[in-house]
Write the structure tokens for this entry.
Amino acid sequence: MTTAAVLGLIVTTIAGATPANASPATATTETFIGYGYLPENAHQDALAQMHAYSPSCYEVSTTYSPAGSMHYWKATLTAEC
């Protein structure tokens, strides 16, 4: 890379523009499944998994359903990471 190209890249970066060869960051959708005795316990379990996966993830939606056992719930949390 020439000195002029490096200086152009530095100026472009300082100005806040994206260089032509840079790839933009894209968010991915991830799903986390939590279980618990109550729906809020299942939600906390799914949140803990999400935060362990990446602290930058944020919750988009959560749905609750019986987990197949008489007293347990399943939380399906959708997140953007």
In short: The CA atoms of residues 8 and 19 lie 9 Å apart. The beta strands are 29-36, 58-66, 73-80. The first strand starts at residue 29 and ends at 36.
